[in-house]
Inverse folding.
């Protein structure tokens, strides 16, 4: 493990940084699959994606701390097992399905364009779901690389 001091040496800090960077790119990429955002001024889309990315970081940290509680160590990420990675992804997927269902349903925070494929029962968009299947393992890889 690299000798790092201060906040940048903490796994949570690295999780937040890499999660933000990866998820912001994803949020900007999927913008055309949401109603209204593509027709708004550019800064409105950037602001919406930035806000969504901070939500993604929060989900990542919740998933990280959930696995840390099970592993009884915040440093699980350095030598994570397959079960820990799957648990990390699963927590993010469950939270995403719930939040997307609420946001596109009763809360009416956003809606998808017809080109967004959705899950049959919850109506959750497939792209936000793929986001939480593909990006968390990549985030773990970056964090592990940074801390070791």
């Amino acid at each position: 493990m690299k000798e790092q001091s201060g906040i940048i040496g903490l796994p949570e800090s690295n999780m937040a940084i890499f999660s933000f960077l990866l998820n912001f790119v994803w949020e900007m990429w999927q913008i055309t699959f949401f109603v209204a955002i593509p027709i708004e001024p550019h800064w409105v889309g950037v602001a919406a994606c930035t806000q969504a990315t901070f939500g993604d970081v929060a989900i990542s940290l919740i998933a990280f701390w959930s696995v840390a509680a099970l592993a009884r160590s915040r440093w699980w990420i350095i030598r994570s097992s397959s079960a820990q990675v799957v648990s990390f992804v699963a927590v993010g997927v469950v939270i995403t399905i719930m939040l997307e269902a609420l946001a596109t349903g009763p809360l009416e925070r956003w809606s998808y364009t017809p080109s967004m494929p959705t899950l049959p029962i919850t109506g959750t968009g497939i792209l936000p779901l793929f986001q939480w299947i593909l990006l968390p393992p990549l985030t773990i890889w970056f964090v592990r690389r940074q801390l070791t």
The chain is about 65% helix and 0% strand. The helical segments are 11-29, 42-71, 82-104, 126-147.
